[in-house]
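Sample entry (214 residues):
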Amino acid sequence: MLIALFTASLEQLPALPDARFDKLAAELTYLEQIEQQIALVKTFAETALSEAIKRRHLREVARLETCRKAHLLRLEKTVRDDCDLAQRLDLLISIKGIGLRSALCLIIRLPELGHASRAEIAALAGVAPYDDDSGKYHGRRRIQGGRERLRKSLFMCAFTATRHNPDLAAFYTRLRQNGKEHLCAVIAVARKLIVLANTILFRKTEWTPQYRKN
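Predicted structure, serialized as tokens:
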């Protein structure tokens, strides 16, 4: 009875979860598990006590790499079979620093992208700064929460963007010159990158660099 009264009091019912992303998320998780296996077997190869065992590990790495590439292509095809998701994928890939693998992760792990505010999207990605204050104590602002698998991919994008995206590279350099530590600067780049991706998808226009070197 209470639930019915509460539902009736809502002017607009919240949107139901998009079922498209359930299967996509499962397939992406499988891809991530293959990547974890690759990293593990590479460690085994590096620490092998004999060349014969090292070669076995390297053959297994090669097999897993082949599986990874094939599954990535299947996942891309599944996304591109949906016109809306295909457009979102192309818009994200237009941003320097975001490759195919990361764009797929952003689309699948963050379906709110392009539909949420700057603050909301940063919080969902786990890169929103929160105060650590209590009374007269003022601690350093820190990030917390968010979607862990998504945040890992976003940080990898941020590292790439500091080298290849002219706008974000200039932003990173400016932060470092102003005394920001490397990790803090990378987190700021990650936050700026996800906000940029959110804006690109909202406007449905490809990314164009703003930075011009003098």
